[in-house]
C-alpha cells in the first residue's frame, strides 16, 4: 500500500470508525495504526486486516515509537 493510495482516505478503524495511518514497511511490518486507541492492524499481502480481533494493542513505549515512525 502506498501513502497516496485513495483507499487510505476511506479505511477506518473497526472499533472507533476514525481514520487510520499507514505505517510503511521498513522499521517493522506494513500496517495501519490508530493512535487514539493504540491499535495496529496488519497489512498482509497488500490487504488490510481490519477485523477488531486482528488489531494488536500497543504498549506505551511501542505507541511512542510508532508516533515517531509516523512523523517521518
Question: How do the strands and helices of this protein lay out in sequence?
Answer:
Elements: H1 7-10, E1 21-23, E2 31-34, E3 39-44, E4 47-48, E5 56-57, H2 60-71
Antiparallel strand pairs: 1-2, 2-3, 3-4, 3-5
Could you write a compact summary of the structure shown?
The protein is α+β, with helices and mostly antiparallel strands.
Q: What labels describe this entry?
A:
72 residues; 5-stranded antiparallel β-sheet; alpha+beta; 5 strands; single chain
Polypeptide structure, described:
It is built from 2 helices and 5 strands, in the order αβββββα. β2 (31-34) and β3 (39-44) form a beta hairpin. 22% of the residues lie in helices and 24% in strands. The two termini are 17 Å apart. The longest helix has 12 residues, at 60-71. It is α+β, with helices and mostly antiparallel strands. The chain is globular, with a radius of gyration of 11 Å. Strands 1, 2, 3, 4 and 5 form a 5-stranded antiparallel β-sheet that branches.
Helix-strand category: alpha+beta
How many helices? The count is: 2
Helix content: 10-25%
Unreliable spans:
none
- How far apart lie the N and C ends? 17 Å
Radius of gyration: 11 Å
- Basic shape: globular
Largest sheet: 5 strands, antiparallel
Q: What is the assembly state of the chains in this entry?
A: single chain
Amino acid at each position: 500500500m502506498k501513502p497516496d493510495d485513495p483507499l487510505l482516505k476511506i479505511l477506518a478503524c473497526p472499533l472507533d470508525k476514525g481514520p487510520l495511518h499507514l505505517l510503511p514497511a521498513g522499521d517493522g511490518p506494513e500496517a495501519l495504526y490508530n493512535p487514539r486507541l493504540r491499535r495496529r492492524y496488519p497489512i498482509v499481502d497488500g490487504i488490510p486486516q481490519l477485523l477488531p480481533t486482528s488489531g494488536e494493542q500497543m504498549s506505551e513505549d511501542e505507541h511512542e515509537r510508532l508516533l515517531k515512525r509516523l512523523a517521518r
